[in-house]
């Protein structure tokens, strides 16, 4: 409705409104297009309409320099019964089902493996990681995290570009004496 670009994630496929914007699962590190044999990709409004006849797992709006302000997009997308909004970065808004967050995934996996909450460490850097951190006994925010994650975390490590995840693993899983930001 607002003319933004988006991806629709369905079983086995990714559908994009615009053909000139490729999802990162479709483009390798050299930014050369490739097609995964396990995932199909389709483009255009007709493909998007067809995707809505399938179970949709996630609707992902990507933000560009010409996008509407994120608050306006959140207002337009908000209020969908059974759905929640989150972000995995400053350049997107994700719409998923209420029960499709990382926290639910951690709880399901922990139950299947018989792992108690206090035995779980989770690390995150964006708003889509909040539920996962809340589901863990040990919460680690990356140095480049959103303030909300740092506020609920037990520790803040270095950012993504400075081995933050590795430092947390070395300290809490391997018992090495590694300095932290907090």
Oligomerization:
single chain
Structural class: alpha/beta
Q: Percent helix among the residues? A: 25-40%
Strand order of the largest sheet: 3-2-1-4-6-5
User: Per DSSP, what share of the residues sits in E-state strands of 2 or more residues?
Assistant: 15-25%
Helical region count? 6
How many strand segments?
Answer: 9
pLDDT below 50 for ≥5 consecutive residues: which ranges? none
Based on Cα principal axes, name the global outline: globular
Mean pLDDT: 85
Order of helices and strands: EEEHEHEEHEHEHEH
Overview of the structural elements:
The chain has about 180 residues and is an alpha/beta fold. Helices cover about 25% and strands about 25% of the residues. The protein is built from 6 helices and 9 strands. It has helices at about 45-50, 70-75, 100-115, 130-135, 145-150, 165-170, and strands at about 5-10, 15, 40-45, 55-60, 85, 90-95, 120-125, 140, 155. The chain has a 6-stranded mixed β-sheet with strand order 3-2-1-4-6-5, with helices on one face. A 3-stranded parallel β-sheet has the order 7-8-9. A hairpin with a 2-residue loop joins β1 and β2 (about 15). It is globular. The termini are far apart.
């Amino acid at each position: 409705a607002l003319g933004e670009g988006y991806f629709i994630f369905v079983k086995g496929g990714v559908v994009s409104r615009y053909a000139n914007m490729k999802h990162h699962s479709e483009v390798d590190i050299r930014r050369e297009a490739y097609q995964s044999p396990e995932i199909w990709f389709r483009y255009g409004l007709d493909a998007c309409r067809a995707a809505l006849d399938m179970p949709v797992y996630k609707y992902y709006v990507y933000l560009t320099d010409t996008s509407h302000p994120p608050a306006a997009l959140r207002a337009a997308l908000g209020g969908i019964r059974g759905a929640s909004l989150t972000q995995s970065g400053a350049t997107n808004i994700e719409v998923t089902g209420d029960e499709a967050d990382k926290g639910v995934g951690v709880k399901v996996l922990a139950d299947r493996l018989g792992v108690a909450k206090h035995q779980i460490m989770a690390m995150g850097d964006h708003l889509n990681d909040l539920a996962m951190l809340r589901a863990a006994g040990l919460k680690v925010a990356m140095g480049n995290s959103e303030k909300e994650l740092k506020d609920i975390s037990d520790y803040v490590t270095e950012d993504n570009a400075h081995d933050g995840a590795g430092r947390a693993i070395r300290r809490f899983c391997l018992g090495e004496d590694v300095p932290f930001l907090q």
